[in-house]
Automatic annotation (TrEMBL):
Signal peptide residue numbers: none
Family annotation (InterPro entries): AraC-type_N, Homeodomain-like_sf, HTH_AraC
An example Gene Ontology CC term for this record: cytosol
Protein name according to UniProt: AraC family transcriptional regulator
MF GO annotations: DNA-binding transcription factor activity; transcription cis-regulatory region binding
Source organism superkingdom: Bacteria
Keyword DNA-binding: yes
PANTHER family for this protein: HTH-TYPE TRANSCRIPTIONAL REGULATOR GADX
UniProtKB keywords: DNA-binding, Transcription, Transcription regulation
Length: 343
């Protein structure tokens, strides 16, 4: 699994929220392997996996399902650092989101954002990679909560999206979700993201400042040069985006990158990986999330992972995990039950 880093600004409000639900924040940080010094400098890069584990464990120990949303509730654009200035300095929301996507890995390497438009509807999708199964829910809700606040700050308090969508199941109580979003909620969807009217993307941003935007872009461009993504990173991101379409192939990936397939294979081999190993790694990361929900049909899971048939998916799963999906679900349910009894 690829290791991803993110700015320690992701921990903004963690101490306050942890204390408000009766936790010792420094004990939880230590258990997650995060040095408390990360709280002092928002630009320290820390492992995304550790942050995901911290949020999930904190929610479990506090016996609440909305820990991530509680952290998102008071986030500001300034918490994004220079990325926040880029967003404010764009002429339209579309430009702001495009810029966010372009520079996002400087803020969070594990987070991928893309916009899909069809029939006058826009979906702003968020994908979090590199986190093990069972440590994604709180991170997803934190990310979507922050994104919703960002959109509301840009479009005004009266703006409302069509819906907020989550791949995980609904919590027992939706009180915090209603307070943070105030919009229709949909759970057990095949993506995490915000659905809005496509014309919202062309809304003007009142704070547009071309001079400031140019200066911030120059600064962030210099940072991108220092942290250029490897070929493996680029292929990983494209595989993530193309798998559900059924058109994920090395030729299609090469087309998106503007090179031929031989160039892709050569660069990947130089980095010690292969195209097939990246596809397999992405599938492993995604399948755990999808099969955790017993209500999601396996035929749908197979499609989302880019398999042409359910039988092909079943063979891959059995070969990769040494058991059938139903057996895995049974073991996982038993492990979770034992964990709850121990708590």
């Amino acid at each position: 699994m690829m290791s991803h880093l993110l700015r320690s600004a992701s921990l903004t409000n963690y101490v306050e929220v942890a204390r408000s639900v009766g936790l010792d924040p420094y004990q939880q940080l230590s258990a997650a392997g995060i040095n408390r010094s990360a709280l002092l400098d928002p630009d320290i890069m820390i492992p995304a996996e550790a942050v995901g584990r911290l949020l999930e464990t904190s929610a479990q120990v506090a016996a609440i399902e909305d820990f991530g949303l509680r952290m998102a509730e008071t986030r500001q654009l300034s918490n994004l650092g220079p990325l926040g200035f880029v967003v404010q300095g764009q002429p339209t929301l579309r430009k702001a989101l495009d810029s966010t996507t372009h520079y996002l890995r400087l803020h969070n390497e594990a987070l991928h954002m893309r916009i899909e438009e069809t029939a006058g509807i826009a979906i702003i999708r968020q994908d979090i990679m590199g986190l093990p199964a069972g440590s994604v829910r709180q991170a997803v809700e934190l990310v979507l909560g922050v994104l919703y606040r960002l959109l509301s700050m840009i479009l005004g308090p009266h703006w409302k999206p069509r819906s907020i969508c989550f791949t995980h199941e609904a919590p027992a109580s939706l009180a915090m979700h209603a307070r943070v979003f105030g919009a229709p909620l949909e759970f057990k969807r095949d993506f995490d993201g915000i659905v809005c009217v496509a014309s919202d993307l062309d809304a003007a941003i009142p704070t547009y400042d071309p001079v400031m935007a140019h200066l911030v872009r120059r600064y962030l461009d210099s940072m991108l040069v220092q942290s250029n993504a490897t070929m493996a990173d680029k292929v990983h991101k494209l595989v993530l985006a193309l798998l559900p379409s059924g058109e994920c192939s090395v030729d299609r990936v090469a087309q998106h990158l503007g090179v031929d397939r031989r160039t892709v294979h050569r660069h990947l081999a130089h980095g010690g990986v292969s195209y097939s190993s990246i596809v397999d790694a992405v599938r492993v990361e995604l399948v755990m999330r999808y099969v955790e929900s017993r209500d999601r049909p396996l035929s749908e899971v197979a499609t989302l992972l880019g398999f042409s048939s359910l039988s092909a998916f079943s063979r891959w799963f059995g070969g990769r995990f040494g058991c059938s999906v139903s057996t895995w679900r049974g073991k996982n349910r038993s492990a979770n039950s034992n964990g709850l009894r121990q708590e």
